Input
Amino acid sequence: MADVYLIGAGPGDPGLLTVKGKHILETADIVVYDYLANDEFLSYAKPGAEIIYVGKKGGDHTLPQDKINELLVQRAKEGKSIARLKGGDPYVFGRGGEEAEELMEAGLTFEVVPGVTAGVAAPAYAGIPVTHRAHTTSVCFITGHEDPTKEKSGHNWAVYAQSESTLVFYMGVKNLPMIAENLISNGRDPKTPVALVRWGTRCTQESMVSDLENVAEEAARRGFKAPSIIVVGSVCSLHESLNWFEKRPMLGKGVVVTRAREQASGFAETLREQGACVHQFPTIKINPMEDCSEIRQALTEIDSYDWVIFTSVNGVRRFFAEVDAAGADSRIFGGRKIAAIGPATAEALVRRGLRPDFVPAKYVAEHVVSGLIERGVGEGCRILIPRAKVAREVLPEELRKAGAEVRILPVYETGLNEQGPEALEARLEAGEIDFVTFTSSSTVDNFFKLLPPETLKKYMPQVRLACIGPITAKTLESYGFSAGIQPEDYTIPGLAEALINA
Output
């Protein structure tokens, strides 16, 4: 094992982090990260890991490079394993080589985990292949911001200008007029296509194409700022036809996801695939029961029930956690009929070797009841419902009215996730939020415990509210809001589709 891992996080899309980089983040004692390393990567850090921000943004340095080097050496000598997370690739204009030299001089071991560099990824997401057989067979990566302490420039503008290579400039937006002037004065055709890609691979990506003699003026007019990649060459002419990423329907739309973090990943990923900027604001925390003796007792009596009804993925997970702890498996359900309130719950059961006998056409308790009654549930039928300690009582009450004997088995508790609303309020104030999504009545209640209704009302109607179904929408109405977006299909995929259509 190394003392320090220099990890390339890629240019921003969370999916571009390497598998190896993710594994190291999950095991490191300390994570030291940069401004350009997506904050979402920090969710991979193990519980209790120390997180240290050392970013550099437009001359505003939280820590200068020499102090970052000292920090890495000092903390590594304490015996801590360090994941040094850097935007892009550590060795491509990432100053990773300087950090590696400092570690080596201090007698410490290090390992480099390469990352996807912005000079390739940002153009690719903007429809620009940096090499193409019909255009160029080479590419040159160039810094647009040289070390100001150097006595002599490392640039050879005559070579750049007369080469047929694609030129990719990093960190050069401020110097764009100088770059264009030097290339033209050294012989590059003023009509050479030039592209700028800002925040490449992120949901906020934007791009433009001009030509060498006009690009500086047009970039200034359109407000292009750092961080932007500059691409010079005929390959930029492919931008319009190959620009796949910026055609995504939700590109740049800010969506707040209020689900518990354990449940949010699939929903968030679906939205990201459509280009959305997902802001996780989990309002619910899933906690196991402090005393699981009742669950263990129920396992020994499972064969006395006719039906077992699961109402959530969390219920499946927590119930089977005790099944596993007891050294048992899905065979304990032999002869029992199984119901799932929705497709995600059904899928969770299938993964545990149980195919539900009944999944309702509409995923609310009322439809579960009618479907079960059609399947013979009634007088004398014994039903077990593993669920949250506190939940809606419609399902058990209606089943009891039908004559069934119902036992509610609490297998987990939901609590308020007391994450402060400061970051969310800042995003609302900055106009970065377009939608807030609610997937249950409890997400609504907890959201307004954390963010007062009066605060959200300040940003209406610019911010639109989406609810998974009518019951959640009714809870939202009790706070003085209406759900402008509701799917016909009361599921997470249905909610995602409704947002895309909106």
